[in-house]
Amino acid sequence: MREKFWELPLEKLTPDEWEALCDGCGKCCLNKIEYEDSEELLFTRVACKLLDGHACRCSSYQNRHDFVPECVVLTPKKLKEIHYWLPATCAYRLRAERRPLFRWHHLISGDPEAVHRAGVSVRGWTVSEAEVSEEDWEDHIIEDLS
Fold this sequence. Notes:
By secondary structure, the protein is α+β, with helices and mostly antiparallel strands. The protein contains six helices and five strands, in the order αββββαααααβ.
């Protein structure tokens, strides 16, 4: 991969560089509640059934659509449509907004565990959607994910 590729416009990244941009926080795998009438978006601690709550990564990333057909494939084009539901710390959102990555990001720090030590990941505090019915998601609403 190219040196400091993460500073390039997202459209210029290769597929491998695009994938490497993920900070491994797991926040995008949290279920959200969106109220159509007010357009309010609330995050919950209810995670996709495929999220590995310790690694903060999808346990079946390559085959996720076999199990979760509605899982979003994030692309530069798609990012323009949905960046508002990505957490403020997300590398994809930061770069789409032309902001730099945080110091804890593995591409900056060189350490994939830094995201967890910084307390920015979902490690250890999610509950699987397999354990919570959708009508109970409101009981698991969390504060802003900044």
